[in-house]
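Wait, can you check?
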Amino acid sequence: MTSYKTSKYTLNVFGLLLFFAVFGVMAILSLGYSFPEYAHLVDWIPGVTAFQPHASNFVFGCGVMLLYGVVRIMYDAGRAELLIAALVIAAVNAGYELFLPIENTRDPLDAISGVVGTVLGLGAILMIRKAGLKLNT
């Protein structure tokens, strides 16, 4: 019989609300760039129309950080591990955007939006780590 390690923590109400709020914003931004006919759904947010061409990198950075981070904090990951993960995600995103023009054009604004998304995801994870966890009993 195989023994599996259960998580030390689970998300409390605040953690769940913050996680799904950030995920919801990313979904709306994804809808706007994936399906241009729905872009009007985010036009009311100041600056989103100009941001739309770079939203994919923002969503990628934030989403990967958010998903990785929420799983790791439930298993008691430290801030150092989360920061290293954020640096790796941001570096990979920026490196691809700036130095690897494979199926892509070099775009510094895409790299910046990916880094900003990663930082936002890290911020949300650190907030969840501080106030959005309860012991898994």
Notes: DSSP finds five helices and two strands in the chain. The chain has a mean pLDDT of 87. The longest helix spans residues 108-131.
